[in-house]
Protein 1
Amino acid sequence: MRLLIVEDEALIAQNLKKVLEIKGFATDWLSDGEKAKNRILMYHKEYDAIILDLTLPKVDGITLIKLVRAENITTPIIILTGRTETKDKIELLNAGADDYVVKPFSSAEMIARIASVLRRPAVVTKVVHEVGNITIDTATHRVSVDGAEIALTLKEYSLLECFVRRPGEVFTREELSNQVWDFDALTLSNVLDVHMKNLRKKVCATSNSVRFETVRGIGYRFIAEL
């Protein structure tokens, strides 16, 4: 899953980004509201949730929420705020925020808030996916074949989750890279190939009902037999 952090305090943003990436999220960071507005309007479908500070240069958080919601963008938004008054929290929720975290916050609380908003998206999505004889639980990041759990790295899991959510569709190399690595990461072509090779080896060694197809010059497709 992919998250966008919009926070102008570098230390907070960098620490949060590191924690989220350890948890398996592809995470981008922007430090001003104007850049965030442009990124969200153009690429909102790339993000599962947005973590948004209120006090931003150029475009403040409240204004940004209202602009985003006015465009009918339903991506969950979690606000970072120093405000503790009930009326302020109500204002945030009425503006279109899905949740808020009061600074200073713990990484455990932020992870819990993210998990909460991802469980209640505007369009209900399944937590557990079953394709062929593979089961993938997106809440726990566990993958099993015929009930037996298989061990995947974070990147391998993230790739598999992309495929399982859209079986039969062709993913371009760029699309996979953008889903699994952040926008600023230098993802060389052979890095994706290595992860795909390892994922294919682990999954196909235990399951004969699914396969990964290489679509020459484009990317990859995940096929599951029903």
Note: The longest strand covers residues 210-215.
Protein 2
Amino acid sequence: MPKLKTNRGAAKRFRKRAGGSFKRGQAFRSHILTKKSPKRKRQLRSPSDVAEADTKSVTRLLPYS
């Protein structure tokens, strides 16, 4: 059986947590920040979980995580 390749784009975006869920960064934080309130930008800093519906897809992209 050949080795499976990790999707390198996904490897840079997701990290596996101890409970089996995946951690991801928040979107909407890269540009056009002047119109966003400080509270909104501060809350976008914290990581979020990948939705349960998408966890299976992410697991396929990261076979050894």
Note: The beta strands are 14-16, 22-24, 48-49.
